[in-house]
Write a structure and sequence with these properties.
This protein is α+β, with helices and mostly antiparallel strands. It contains 3 helices and 4 strands; from the N terminus they run E-H-E-E-H-E-H. Strands 2-3-1-4 form a 4-stranded antiparallel sheet.
Length: 99
């Protein structure tokens, strides 16, 4: 895969007791925070900016911490915006809405 910057949206829905869902999701978000990539936490997913390989490694690690935090199963939804000939930046889509 090329080394252009892409956007990847990650949503992880852990199978845990309902009162533990946010705590497990917080573990996944902590992985993203520690990674150093640009990201935005949204109500349903977290959007990241980086190279394909870099972000897929974060996706893998985020799932691993959810299992370690007690999830027996995960539903993982990923959306990717990728360009063959250039970079994709979060601000390209959202800058006009930032306040």
């Amino acid at each position: 895969m090329h080394q252009h910057t892409i956007n990847l949206a990650l949503q992880i829905l852990p199978q845990v007791a309902s009162d533990k869902v946010y705590a497990v999701v917080d573990e996944a978000i902590a992985v993203i925070q520690r990674s150093g990539v640009k990201y935005r936490v949204c109500p349903f997913e977290t959007v990241m900016e980086g190279t394909y390989d870099q972000l897929m490694e974060i996706v893998k690690e985020a799932q691993e911490v959810c299992f370690k935090a007690g999830a027996g199963q995960l539903l993982v939804y990923i959306k990717i915006q990728n360009r063959q000939d250039g970079d994709v930046f979060i601000e390209d889509k959202t800058a006009k809405y930032d306040q």
